[in-house]
Amino acid sequence: MRRAALPVLAMVLGAVSGVRADPVTPYTDPLFAAQCTFHHFAEGEAPPPGGLPDDPLCVEYDKRDITATDGGAIRFLAAEPARFAVAVPKCRYWQQDHWSVPSTGTAATGSTRATARARRGCGTSPSATSQPDPTRRPT
């Protein structure tokens, strides 16, 4: 059995050795940051079911109460599907999370800028993505 595992291990290690990660770089705001109007959502608050019309869509979420003891984790999990759904159809999306992790004695706090997706095939100019098409008929 060991003899059979050695060739497989060698193939896996050989395939993985060619994989290279992108270099680590400091965080920078996305190129479309100047076009953003941020929508702020409080703890456990989900975006509206109909979504938001902005593109780029820029959102801030408070995620400071993700605990099991007072229901914060349940509120967090209940809001996540709507948060994901509002982002999917957008060409440009920027999300900032404000979070804290409770622990014994002190809480770690911070912000995360989980950012800046700009999908291929979408217009890059503000007029191409954020203005309605006057020639398109409503459905």
Please, could you describe this protein's structure?
This protein is α/β, with parallel strands linked by helices and 139 residues long. Mean pLDDT is 74; it is low at 125-139. It is built from three helices and four strands; from the N terminus they run αββαββα. It has a domain at 37-120.
Write the SSE topology.
Elements lengths: L1 H15 L21 E4 L15 E7 L8 H16 L4 E11 L4 E12 L7 H5 L9
Parallel strand pairs: 1-2, 2-3
Antiparallel strand pairs: 3-4
Oligomer: single chain
Structural class: alpha/beta
- Please estimate the helix content: 25-40%
Residue stretches low in confidence (pLDDT < 50, at least 5 long) are: 125-139
Write down the secondary-structure element order: HEEHEEH
Structural Rg: 21 Å
Strand content bin? 15-25%
Largest sheet descriptor = 4 strands, mixed
